[in-house]
Structures are given as structure tokens and as C-alpha cells.
Structures
1.
Amino acid sequence: MTLNPLLPFLMAGDPSLEALPGLLAEARALGLDAVEVGLPHSDPIADGPVLQAAAHRAIGRGATPRRVLESLAGLTDSPDLILFTYVNPLLQLGLDPLLRLLEPTPVRSLLVVDLPFGEEPGFEAELRAAGYPMVPLLAPTTTSDRAKALLGQRPDPGPGAPFAQRFAYVVARLGVTGAGQGTDLDPVVARVRDLQGITARPLAVGFGLSDPASLRAVRALGATPVIGSALVADLTTGRPIKACLEARLV
Amino acid sequence: MNDAFVLPTRFGAQGLGGCYAPETLMQPLLDLEAAFRAALDDPGFQAELKAELRHFVGRPTPLTPAPRLAAKLGLKALYLKREDLAHTGAHKINNALAQALLARRMGRTEIIAETGAGQHGVATAAACARLGLRCTVYMGVTDMARQAPNVARMRLFGATVRPVEAGQGTLKEAVNEALRAWAGHCTEAHYILGSALGPHPFPTLVRSFQTVIGEEARAQVFEQAGALPEAVVACAGGGSNGLGLLIPFAGDGLRRMAVEAGGHGRALGEHAARLDGGRMGVLHGCRTLLLQDEHGHTAETASVSAGLDYPALGPELAALVLDGKVEVRRASDDEALAAARLLCETEGILPALESSHALALLPALAAEGAATVLLGLSGRGDKDLSTYQSRLEL
Ligand SMILES: Cc1ncc(COP(=O)(O)O)c(C=O)c1O
């Protein structure tokens, strides 16, 4: 598998739901395998100020979970999507309506920030069986034994599956999402190397990455950098997504 | 179930509670559970906690008969469990102090807390001052305005008070921000959550540090009245004083009641009554009764009382209610204000607005035929003077 060079994060509904298909098509035209799409939530406890503000703008413009998924239905020129969300909106939709909404979309996996494995076992198993595995998250506080367990609980479907369903998400630093000021990459570099000794599946590294040098450093490890808050902030200035992404692909 | 924890993480027939936390916080929560279990088994910790509760907090707090109020309401006897007389003026210190001792045992040097009414913030700031821990308290800007005296008290105790501007500027946003801050500092900081809420092990931890209220009250009422009351009543924000008072009466076959904030109306957004208006959902790490819209977004809440102005009922109390073991009622802003005035006039005790919601249930209880009632007076009302002044036109 060739390295997916960048995993962008977009907040659905910010700047607007109408704009989302176009943004996704641009990402695909740049050859990106996958994009994380955030479902705006009222209480995003793992997000920093930029994504909090984006979520609240999106909710203010009516980007409900149902509308977000409906806006993704039938897209043909989109990368694979990873739905980034908190668990409550999914539970309130309910399993069957959620599966019906997901079915016509390019969503291939779910990244549920506040759902440790085992808390909603039936729900998670049904989603996996229907083709929507949960992305395992590995934090700076995750011990090596725990990482092994997490990677086993949410296993790699294997080389035949797309990146969106295979990768594990390495949280680069303690805290919440947000463009970090001078994030020290040494600790995460060491962690990625350790994790690569445990697993052969692709790794994405996110939280606090923004400048091209950090992104290159992650790529040099053979991992995919995630660009979230910095991209969302850029897009709100009206800068075209093509330019935003190209600047981070060098 | 999350098999890495040892203590039960779920409550009641519907499995409320759980640990819906971001991965960054999982190891800190596992470590906290382990430290809590070790402390419970350690006679040294128990002795230290007991001594601090006695000499610093002033426990046991009195059980005060309130005969003039009882007569006015048509009750035979009314007993008030005086958590307002605990140091810093509310039950919150029982938990804050115990968790601060636990944090020190764990080698943590920094404490993070959220606060609504400011009572938990003041209690945590005081405990940190006493134990030499650095303390940062997150508080919504609306609450900072309506509970201004408590902001000053926290600052006097050396705590940093961080205003939270987001949303309605109340307790929910303060918890959001405290959880975020903890995720950033979880290797050196302990988060002292102030109610029986949040991801496992917090609900269990907080409740077990609050049952001292009910244990004392049960012995005291036996001593004074020679019998148990017919009903035991507390107000319910997250549920810590409620569980603390009600749980020790579990085997006694009496009515156990909790009173939520009815605010100023019945529509979503006008109150904080989770039993009528809430549906099962996940907020702040636990599954429980939650005020939310159809999309799973947390609803706005309203209450004259900052400490009850929170969209989720703690999971253990919600489970007791759903399983039919505790009754929940609501009291409106106006009913709570009137009840506060009546207690002041008949007994010379100024209750917190939170506690006034429990008092507001008494006329209904008397009308239903209850003769003897024990009520948890969770806090004192000095912090609420400006609200009392304006709403009661003093
Ligand atoms: C005096 C007082 N009573 C009650 C509460 C409500 O909290 P809980 O339901 O956890 O007891 C508060 C919270 O701030 C409080 O300050």
C-alpha cells in the first residue's frame, strides 16, 4: 500500500453543507484516499477552540446528524470518508436509521472520540458487521499493552480493505484538537516507531499538526499526518481548499 | 462492559453510567480507580480522612429539628441535616477534601475542578490550600456573575478561576472545559469532579465520599426521635448530596425523594428537570437521563439555582429513580424562593437556592399525609444573597 500523504479533517456544515461535496471532490482530485468528516456536536469535549467554534457555527446553520449524512448520500467523486463524531448523536439516531443513512454515503468507518471499546458492544458489533468499523485511537497515555489490546479489539480488516477501515489514529499529544504552537514531535516520533513494532496496519497521526515540516516529519515515518483545526481555520478565511491542501502536500 | 475496571461501572436495570471517555483519559481513569480502591483498603487513609472531616470540615454536622416550620406546613416533625454548617458552607467539601487527599496520595501536584454554584470550587480551593496543591477552577461566566462571592472566596484561597464563555456559561460548559484541561495535564493533575457524574469511577467515588451525610443523619434521627422519618428528601443537581443522604436509608422502607429544578416553565430549555423532560443519552462520560434535542445535542437549561442548572442527572441517582427506588419531583424557581423565605422566617436559617428546592417539596409532602420528614439542607445561602435581594425584593 502506498502512503496516503494527508488525512484532512472537515467539519460538516462549516462553511456550509452545500459546500461539502465540492470540498470532498477537490480532495479526491488531489489524490487523497480518505477524509475525516466531523459531525458537529454541542459538547465536543475532545476539541479545542477552532473545532468547537466550527461545530457551533454548523449547528447554528442546521447541520444536524441526519442532514449531514443526507448531504453525503450518492456522492461519487468523494474520497472514502471517516465519520468523526461523539457517541450521543449516533445513539439518538439509533442503529437502524443510522445504517440506512450511512448506506448511500462514502463513509467507510467511524471515529467515535468518546466510545471506548466495550461500552456499547452490541451497537459497535452491528456497525462493524455492516461495514463500518470503529477506528482505534492510541493516545500518549495509552500504554504499550493497552495499545496491543485496543488494536486487537478493533482489528485491521486486512490489506484488501481501504485505508479508512484499516488505519489506527495516533493522538500526537495530550489535550484537545487544535493547531499546536511548536508541538515537540520527538515524543510522537518515538511512539509511532514503537507502534510500528506492534502493528503492520497504517497509522495516522493527528492533534496539533499544522506546519509543512511537521507533516513531512510524520510522512518520513511512513505514517499519514492529519490536518484538522489548521485546515478548518484556513477554510473560514475563504481560502480555496485546493490551495490549503496543496500547501500541506509539499 | 469495560473489562479493565474492577468496580462495577454500571447502575440499575438499564445499565446507566459507564465510561464514555476519550482514550487520553482512559489510563488516568484506570489509575484513579486503582488509587481509590487502595485508599479504601488503607486504614491510614481512612484515619486521615476522618480526622480532616472532624477537625477541618467540622463533622458531624448537626441534625436540627425545625418545629416552627413543621407546624407551619402541617408536619409533625421536620429534621434538617445541616450540610450548610460544614466548612465552606455546603456538602461539597466532603468530596473535595477526600479527593484532594487521594490526589496527594497519587503524587499529583495540580488540581482541576469545575464549579456551578461555586460551592464545589470553593471547597476544592480550600482543600487545596490546606494540602498545598495548586488549584484551577473552571466556571461559566453566567455563574461567575450570579455567584460572585464564591469567585472571590476561591481567589482568596489561592485558586485560579478560569471563566468559561461558551454556550450558556453554566455548569455544563465548565465541565466541558475542565475535561479538556484534564486531558492536557492528566500526567500531573487530578480532576476533582464535584458531583456524582462523569465517567467511571467518578460517580462511585463521589457518592462514596458523600454517604457520610446519610450515615450521620440516620444515627442522629434515631437518637433524637427514636424512630426513622417517613420520608427523606434532598435536592438533585448531579446527585451527590442526594445519593449521600438517601443511600444509607436504602434498607429502611421509607420514601426517598429527590427534587430537581423546575425553572420557570415546562418547555425544553426552561428548566433542569431531567426526569420529565430527559431521555437516555451520553454526556460527560456517562449514560443517563439527559435533556437533549432529537439530534442528541444537549439542550439548554434554566434554573434560578446554579448548582441544579445542569442537563444530566447523575447515573446512579437516575438508575435508582428508573428502578422505582427513589421518587423525583420538581420545584419551580418561585417555589424554591418562597420556601427559602419561609425557612428564614420560621427557623432563622438561610438556605442555598439549591437546598431551597428540597424545602419547596414540603407542602406537597404534608398534603400527601407525610408526618415526619428528614431534609438535606445541602448548603447555606450567603452566596445567593444578590438573587434573594432582587427576586424577593428585600
Ligand atoms: C448547596 C448545593 N446543593 C446542591 C448542589 C447540587 O449538586 P448535587 O446534586 O451534586 O448535590 C450544589 C451544587 O453546586 C450546591 O452547591
Note: Residues B 90, 92, 116-117, 119-120, 195, 235-242, 307-308, 352, 354-355, 378-379 surround pyridoxal-5'-phosphate (CB under 6 Å).
2.
Amino acid sequence: MIVIDRVRKVFPLAGAEFVALGDVSLELADNEFVTIVGPSGCGKTTLMNILAGLETPSGGRALVDGTPVAGPGPERGVIFQQYALFPWLTVRKNVEFGLRTAGVPAARRREIAEHFIHLVGLDQFADALPKMLSGGMKQRVAIARAYAVNPSILLMDEPFGAVDALTRVRLQEQLLDTWSQERRTVVFVTHDVDEAVFLANRVVVMAARPGRIVEVIDVDLPYPRTEDIRLSPAFATLRNRVWGAVYHQETPA
Amino acid sequence: MTMVRQQPATQAGTPQPEPRRRRTVPRGVLNLVSVLLGIGIWWLLPTVGFHDIPAPPEVAGRAWELTVDGTLGGDVLASLLRVFIGFVLGVVAAVPVGFLMGWYGPIRGLVEPWVQFFRTIPPLAIIPLAIVLMGIGETPKIFVIFLASFLACVIATFQGVVNVDKTLINAARVLGAKDRTIFARVVVPASTPFILVGMRVGLGSSWATLVAAELIAAQQGLGYRMQNAQLYYDLPTIFVGLIAIGVLGLLMDRILLFAERHLTSWQERR
Ligand SMILES: Nc1ncnc2c1ncn2[C@@H]1O[C@H](COP(=O)(O)OP(=O)(O)O)[C@@H](O)[C@H]1O
Ligand SMILES: [Mg+2]
């Protein structure tokens, strides 16, 4: 369980203070799929970095299973928008990276890597270098790499932001497919309202200046999410609600 | 998992088609034509007034004589040995220093002013000082070559470390890597391309410095041979020396270029 308790983040800005996050609170149950949407600059990445342990909050605290976050940890996997694959390592070696760091023996490493490479459907590319892969494939490697160290939480910051619309839809379906086989708590940041609704069981809508949560919308659509669901009136209703919450925010001047 | 079949394996590895060239003459052929043309012009020069310039056959003859009596081989060996020792010492010293500068702020603060200062001095300008302090033996020559390769390489290594993508470091951290692992498994490989470029620049600079150093003080070596020939107006020998320097420099550069291509083939090139 993740508890975000009045988390605040202030950056110094030209002698003054810039409040990137102002007292954000949120609780996530285990194996939830929560998406965070909001205009750019509302502190989504900052919140993710705090959860990942890459940044420390200026106030408040983030707790994972009751323990305050202090630095990155193997129970929290992170997937970055820029893929962040090690370009000198093959797909397999990338996926094995965290396992090697943890001192897992070679044979076991290979076995685990094989499993997750298969799970994201890249068996044929196990020995390819990242430069040979398309953007969508790179992101699937990143997902396999995060999964390989067996985190209980996956933090994904606009992971499909840089791929084309068609590939994005397939990646969403594939991610849900992977998630249904290997349940984890997922926090998924996006600025795409359709994506937010399609993936989540809860959509968190944020606003900027100061970065804050304005609405949390439950998505009571069943999994597995199919194309029928994407085209259903219920989906459209939810999408419109989230859209309204994101684009009709009162922005303080 | 529908995506697997939609990505044909052939599409992945194939290089992008090169933009169409207007002419279809291969570049290698053009290079050869250019070299032959150059030699042709050289051949003509003595006949159109530049009587002092030796024609190619004369130079080739001299090259043959110098090869047969062992002079050329000895000179080449002496020069290569100097450059090799100085260059290797320079690289071996520069890589750790560059890494330390890039990784630890205080070390950068302490070392950088000196590196920047010595970088503005051409290594050749150190020769008078080196000769006074170290005598006219091998030491001052190797020292200036060391300096030339060290300065080129230390800057490149440092730049390489500073330029490591921050997201890659974060990616390693969230996968459980601590500083030491991040250094060995992210920073070192990520800066390799920079280091190799630095080595190439350093080798070029070493070679140039060496030949000049030999012009000033040496008993053997290509620079010395040319300097000696100058005293006797022996133009063919000077030409042999020049061509040997050029060919050897080109060869060394190509070897490093090959190593660079090979070691950094993971890079996305465009
Ligand atoms: N290191 C930093 N220093 C100063 N300002 C920052 C820093 N990181 C983020 N910010 C600011 O905080 C705000 C929120 O940033 P971010 O979390 O990246 O937003 P989002 O991901 O929602 O687009 C932005 O206005 C950004 O300029
Ligand atoms: Mg962001």
C-alpha cells in the first residue's frame, strides 16, 4: 500500500520559491492501477520522482507498506518516458541489469529475463541492441526490465508519450495483458485522457500552480479492457468527465 | 501479444537506404583517381619550372636505398616507439584523471585550471624547457608526447563522464545500483565513445609533436632524418620522410578509427 501524506515540493526559482506540489495526499491499495492526468507542469513527474526515491519531499511523507521512502528501492520499479535503456547492452542484458546488481546467479538471471522478455513478446529480439528496436519495442524492454527485479509497485511516467497513436493503443492493451498476468500496483502518469481512462481503475486529475489533486474518478469498467469497452458509451461518459476535470480547471492567474 | 508478428525481423537491422547519389562512380575509385592525379601533377612540377623538386622516380629510388640499408626502418622504428610509449603513458594517466574530474566535483575544481592552462600551450613550446630540465635524451621527447596525448584524452574523458545521460544513471539507481556499480557499468561504457575520440585526437597530436621534437634534438627518427637531409639539400630524403610520416599517421588513425567503430557499434548513428 502506498500512502502519500501531505507531500509538498518546493523548488527555488529566481530567488523566490516555486511550489511544484502543495500538500498532495493520496492512498493506493495493493494491485491498483491508478493513472494520473493533468496539464504539463502540474507536478506529475515530481510526484513520481518522490515515490521513486529520486527526489525528497520538502514536506509531508510518502510511505510504501508503512515505511517512508528514502532513496530508490527494488520494490519500486520505474519506467521512464525516454526508455532509458542501456544502449551498449542487448535486450537480454538490459533486462538482467537489476538482477546482476542484486547478485542473482547467471543461470537464474537468464531464466527470469527469458520469462519477462517472452511476456512482453520480444523473444526474437533478446540478443538485439536497443538501436535496432522501435520506440514501442524499447518501452516494452523497459517494462520487462522493471518487472525482472520483481517490484510490487511500478511507477510509469508518460511511458507511451513518445510513440505514435496506433502503437500507443497496442502498448496499452499489451501493458494490461502483462499486468493481468503479473499483478502489481501501477502508478501511471499520462497527459492523454483516453489512455488514463482505458488503463485505470482510478483516475487522479491534477492541476498546476500549485500542483495539487483536483479530482479522483473511479473507473468502474471491467477488466480485461477490450476494444468494445473503449468504444462503449460508459467509456465515453467517463472520458468526458475526466476531460472536463482536466481542461476546465480554474487556473489561478 | 499481437505485436510480435507485426515487426518483421528483417526490418529491424537493415540500415536505412542511403540518399541517392547523382553519379554512380564508387568513392574508392574517385579516391584512387585523385591520388594518381596528385602524383601526376607532382611529376609535372619539375618540368614546368620547379627544378628543385625531385620527381617521383627519384624519391622512390631514395626510399628503396634507405630501406635496403636499414636507415628508414630504424628511423620508423625509433619514431614509432617514442610515440607509442608517450601516447600510451598519456592515455593511461588521462583516463583515470578524467573520470575523477567528471565524477568528483572537488577534484574537477582542483585539476581543471591546470588542464585548461596547459591546453593553451602547444606541447612543442614545452620542448625548450623539457630539454633544459631533462637533457637531450629520450625523456624530453617522450614527455612532450605524453603531454600532448594526456591533454587531449583527459578533456575527452571528462566530457564523456559529464555528458552521461542522467536518466541512465537514474535507471541504474532504481534498479538497485549503488555508486560503484553505476560508475563501472554505466559511466564507463557511456563515456567510451568520448574517450576513443580523445585517443584519436591525442594520437594525431602526439605524432605531430614527435616529428617536430625530433627536428630539434634526436640522433635517429624520421624528423631527425629530414633535419639532417636539410643540411645537405637532400630533397629526395626529405620527401621520403614526409611521405613516411603521412602514411604512418594515416595508418595509426585508421587503426584507432576501426577500434572506435568496433567498440561503439552500439551507438545510434545517423
Ligand atoms: N529541479 C527543478 N528545479 C526547479 N523547478 C523544477 C524542477 N523540477 C521541476 N520543476 C518545476 O516544477 C513544476 C512541475 O514539474 P513536473 O513535475 O516535471 O511537471 P509535469 O511532469 O506534470 O509536467 C514545473 O513547473 C517545473 O518547471
Ligand atoms: Mg513530466
Note: DSSP finds eight helices and ten strands in chain A.
